[in-house]
Write a structure and sequence with these properties.
The protein is α/β, with parallel strands linked by helices. It is built from ten helices and 13 strands. Helix 5 packs parallel to helix 7 and helix 5 crosses helix 10.
Length: about 325
């Protein structure tokens, strides 16, 4: 497999390279790709150095798969060019997610929708991936009516500039700001820009992408997304109303047997998911599983995952692994 990593010098791109190596992905030729200002820089993969190339050079090299993590505008411009050259693109940006002609994939849920004709495949938003991985088996069993989610999102979701802002604030150093406000000792109730309805883009991604991935437009979703001074991953308080009643122990058992999900739920031992312990891991962790006593057929959960791993790089690479296993590339 000739693999192009587009955005190889960025935060997610670096994690992609790490995950490719960890999972022994069958890379016969690695093509690191970035913007013109990074062309000629060297990156290291499995102990070997590779020179970063520009976009058109990468298109001309006709990779089998291109893993994109370079922003929406770049994806809109370049993904079709890669696809036209015969490369299958798996894109991490929001550019193609709600395009009705493109598949939005979490492999454990809907990879079987993919065909060899899918040359641009969308990777969902990080906060959506971890939530739907937990919701999907429960939806099949109990039928979800409504989801209320509040997120507590890592600064790594914003990028290197935000990590630098937090480090500067820790050190008492004035520097460039990724946010309009300090993030150290703070919680900012805004992830991404606002839409006309008063919700942020991040909140509406949770709404729209959940329906698309679960193939059910009847599910009502409302979200509040908050940025917190955390590095390890995103956390979510999720309240789910079902059409049918459930047994809490059965819910735990269903989730225990769900690929990619780890149940951490024991009040006696104070066991519950936390971003500090999710960092660097590919699983989605769920705990604080309990009945909502204020309303029938309703469940509360706490869901945590490393947003750079399963929320971005790992999910992208799992899609690529599926394409290879299914002989679609």
């Amino acid at each position: 497999m000739r693999i192009a990593v587009v955005g190889a010098t960025g935060m997610v791109g670096e994690v992609m390279l790490k995950v490719l190596a960890e999972r022994n992905f069958p890379v016969t030729e690695l093509i690191p790709v970035a913007s013109e200002r990074s062309v000629g820089k060297e990156i290291e993969y499995k102990g070997k150095k590779y020179k970063v190339v520009g976009m058109q050079t990468a298109v001309d090299m006709k990779a089998d798969i291109a893993l994109f993590s370079a922003g929406g505008d770049t994806s809109l411009e370049w993904a079709p060019k890669f696809a036209a050259a015969g490369t299958t693109v798996i894109d991490n940006s929001s550019a193609w997610r709600m395009d009705p002609t493109k598949k939005l994939i979490v492999p454990e849920i809907n990879a079987t929708e993919l065909t060899a004709a899918d040359k641009i495949i969308a990777n969902p938003n990080c906060s959506t991936i971890q939530m739907v991985l937990v919701l999907a088996p429960l939806h099949r069993k109990y039928n979800i009516k409504r989801v209320i989610v509040s997120t507590y999102q890592s600064i790594t979701g914003t990028g290197v500039k935000a990590v630098q802002q937090l480090e500067n604030e820790y050190a008492g150093v004035q520097g460039e700001m990724a946010y309009k406000y300090p993030i150290h000792r703070n919680a900012i109730p805004q992830c991404d820009s606002f839409e006309e309805n008063g919700y942020t883009k991040e909140e509406m991604k949770l709404v729209r992408e959940t329906k698309k991935i679960l193939s059910d437009n009847t599910i009502a979703v409302t979200a509040t997304a908050v940025r917190v001074p955390i590095v390890g991953g995103h956390s979510e308080a999720v309240n789910v109303e079902f059409s049918n009643d459930f047994d809490v122990n059965e819910v735990r058992n269903i989730l225990h047997h769900t690929d990619g999900v780890v149940v951490q739920d024991n009040n006696d031992t104070y066991t519950y998911p936390m971003p500090m312990y999710a960092q660097g891991k590919d699983d989605v962790f769920v705990g604080r599983i309990r009945r909502d006593e204020s309303q029938e057929n309703t469940l509360n959960m706490w869901i945590v995952a490393d947003n750079l791993r399963k929320g971005a790089a790992t999910n992208t690479i799992q899609i690529a692994e599926y394409l290879i296993a299914a002989k679609l590339v």
